[in-house]
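This section describes the prediction task in plain terms. A model, or a person checking by hand, is given the sequence of a single protein chain and must write out its three-dimensional structure as a string of tokens. No templates, partner chains or ligands are provided. The sample shown here is typical of the held-out split.
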Amino acid sequence: MAIRTKVKPLKDVGEKIQSLRRGSLKTVFYIVVLAISLSIANFIFGWTSLEEIPAFLRPYSVAILLINPYLVYIHAALVFIIGYLVVNAVSGLAYTYMRKITDHPTAATIRTIVRIAGVAVLLSLTASVFNVNPSAALTVGSFGGLVAGFATQTILSNVVAGVFLLLSRPFRYGDLITISGQTGSVKEIKLMHLVLETEDGAKEILIPSGIVVTQIILKTNPAKQPEKT
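The expected answer:
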């Protein structure tokens, strides 16, 4: 049994590393496919007159000249479709990485935040394809970012606070502390919540990380506690 408990974590780490590699390769693959697709579309349909069309494409000149005015829409479709695949791949990478240091719900939340931010950037890029004013494209991206910011403000504040708690370690696992009138021993330090266990072990108290960093924390030293009579 002891051997299995050692091998399993190593196996999990190896699987996560493989997943990160696959996600990275997938992201690069999608970006390369996007670049090649845009280049091919430009080469085939980028001719505006019959004289410009190469000899080997002349048999298809009617279709080429018919599609040419709509080339910008083809570009936009390619950018949005393949770009969305890139956003999904990147959000998957974020989830895989966060699962190395936190639980599934928190990692899933980070994945959603990355996806929302990626879609906001994607909308800005898609708008720029139509040769709109750069400030207009920036406005589209800013609006998307603003919506994402309002939608995830509380989540982000708790995540940032959780990272601060994990790095600074103002208390350790098993410490008896009191926060916002709630007393218990530290059971888990997550990105979104601090989990306390009551002294009788019957209940768990989840306190949002954003509250923990703004409240006065009372730590009880067991060695100096008065003996019960």
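For orientation: Residues 2-45 form the longest helix (44 residues).
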